[in-house]
Amino acid sequence: MINRLLGKQKNQDSLVERVQQLQQKPLPKHIAVIMDGNGRWARRRALPRIAGHHEGMNTVKKITRIASNLGIGALTMYAFSTENWKRPKKEVDFLMKLPSEFLHTYLPELIEQNVKVEMIGDPSNLPRHTLDAIHNAMEKTQQNDGLILNFAMNYGSRAELVQATKQIVELVQSGQLSVEDITDETMNAQLMTAHLDEPDLLIRTSGEVRLSNFMLWQLAYAEFIFTDVLWPDFTEHHFLDAVEQYQSRHRRFGSVEGEQKA
Ligand code: FPP
């Protein structure tokens, strides 16, 4: 199975070996990725920025494939933030077409790989064609129980938290919840990620070291890995390097005793 799925890789043998080795230790259940550096990748080649985004889409395919083979539970990809509307219209239009291009060519493989497509973010002002492509993929993969490929589209963490807070206030006002009963779990339950494990690992490419309004609540205890590699240059090996680094870190979740290794 694994050989067939990784069959297109030149360095197939070493990838298969690495995957098997990493599977000996606990894996992150959920990996969140800030895919940054597409514009710089294009500029270095004197190409338009959209060429970088297109190449970035191909990286999404590679990383989805390897994450699925490794046995990761969920992969949340920051594909478009609530702030990205400020970009030139041509670039925004292109970014909005990427889900349909990606899913048009890749959906059969996602189905074969037992991947479940999901989305977080505000759908209300996404173009119809973008939503149609994502909804179609969600519908065709809803029975799958392998990797969850979760696209963050028109996603902003502050907006998500404001929305969750409003929902909690409504529950209190309608008498369904008392203020004393509000806990972390109350907030978790109102977030768009309510059904997912919290990310254990965040990867951000391109040398930027910030969260950019991405999963601020959910990443509270995640391990962070920042790499200088630009997203279009990010390979399966870079991804496996990040998982390896994660496995070598000690996660304490705020405690001292009973130190836990990832
Ligand atoms: C940030 O790089 C990247 C984005 C805003 C878009 C990310 C989208 C993809 C990688 C493709 C998504 C694919 C699918 C299937 C939805 P940047 O443009 O800010 O790069 P720069 O900092 O070098 O300018």
Shape: globular
CATH H-level superfamily of the domain at 28-155 and 199-249: Decaprenyl diphosphate synthase-like
**N-to-C CA distance:** 27 Å
Number of helices: 9
CATH topology of the domain at 28-155 and 199-249: Undecaprenyl pyrophosphate synthetase
EC number: 2.5.1.-
Protein name: Isoprenyl transferase
Keywords: Magnesium, Metal-binding, Transferase
GO molecular function: ditrans,polycis-undecaprenyl-diphosphate synthase [(2E,6E)-farnesyl-diphosphate specific] activity; magnesium ion binding; manganese ion binding
What does this protein look like?
The chain is of the alpha/beta class. The protein has a domain at 28-155 and 199-249: Undecaprenyl pyrophosphate synthetase. The protein is 45% helix and 15% strand. The protein is built from nine helices and eight strands. The chain has helices spanning 2-5, 12-22, 38-44, 49-70, 89-112, 128-141, 157-173, 184-190, 236-248, and strands spanning 30-34, 74-81, 116-120, 148-155, 201-204, 223-226, 250-251, 260-261. The strands form two sheets. Strands 3-4-2-1-5-6 form a six-stranded parallel β-sheet, sandwiched between helices. It has a two-stranded antiparallel ribbon with strand order 7-8. β7 and β8 (260-261) form a beta hairpin. α3 (38-44) packs across α4 (49-70) and α4 (49-70) packs parallel to α5 (89-112). The longest helix has 24 residues, at 89-112. 36% of the residues are buried. The mean pLDDT is 94. The structure holds farnesyl diphosphate. Farnesyl diphosphate is lined by residues 35-40, 53, 56-57, 60, 79, 84, 95, 98-99, 102, 151, 206, 231.
